[in-house]
Amino acid sequence: MAAGQEVTATSYIQHHLSFNAQPVGDGAFWTLHVDSLATGVILGVVATALMWWVVRGATAGVPNRRQAFVELLFGFVDDQVKGIFHGKRDFVAPAALTVFVWVLLMNAMDFLPVDIMAWILTNVFHQHEFRIVPTADVNTTFALSLSVFLLMIYFSIAVKGLGGWIHELFCAPFGSNPLLWPFNFLFNLVEYVSKPLSHSLRLYGNMYAGEIIFLLLWLWAATSLSGAFFGALLGVGWSIFHILIVVLQAYIFMMLTIVYISMAHETH
């Protein structure tokens, strides 16, 4: 925030919830959230580098700790895929693992102290508006869900053929009578639209709410000595509980990805 500017509860929250938004072109339609994009890309590179580091040091004998942890993670994700998807898993399992690790890392950025990160970003990188949690940005979660949606469409056409996919759109689930085609199409349209919406908004809503609660607790801590005590106490408690939310939301996003791709392989 600008030096000398009076800090109120509203301005404090608005400052920490402001994106580094850069208009594209004349700014009439496209706006690029540089903070969400940059953090997401950096975390994607970090996740890839970590996996490469573990694989590079893997041995056929007794695994070290990091190799054992990653093998457990691989086995866990593969078991989830086996239980839902019954085709070849050469694409689905790696995609599910990528989604889980990437979303988990983006969610985990919520644990970084927001005021300390704001000070570093402002004084070191000269970024006065920078949201550090990409999944608290609906644009990020919606982009992820749209990627899964496009994969779902691709596999539907690849498995059933373009004609089979169009036939399913108009002839399932109520029947192939031409009088039922509009109802079948509307039913399937609602299903197709609801999938990316629910997929993205569930993750976004949980992470955004968690970010707001952290900000409110830090505001309470700044009011008085007792506020600092109870704010810190509740902050620790919420951080511990938020670990479950961070992991659970990454897991749910991964599971829905598997489910949607699996549904694309099914015929009605």
Explain what this protein looks like in three dimensions.
- With 268 residues, the protein is an all-alpha fold.
- It has one domain.
- Helix content is 72%, strand content 2%.
- The chain has eight helices and two strands, in the order αββααααααα.
- Strands 1-2 form a two-stranded antiparallel ribbon.
- Helix 6 runs antiparallel to helix 7.
**Order of strands side by side in the largest beta sheet?**
1-2
- Main beta sheet strand tally, sense and closure: 2 strands, antiparallel
SSE class: mainly alpha
Total strand segments: 2
Low-confidence stretches: none
- The total tally of domains equals 1
- Shape descriptor reads globular
Please count the helical segments: 8
Radius of gyration: 22 Å
- Helicity range of the residues? over 70%
Between the first and last Cα atoms, what is the distance in angstroms?
Answer: 56 Å
String of helices and strands:
HEEHHHHHHH
Residue-averaged pLDDT:
89
Percentage beta strand: under 5%
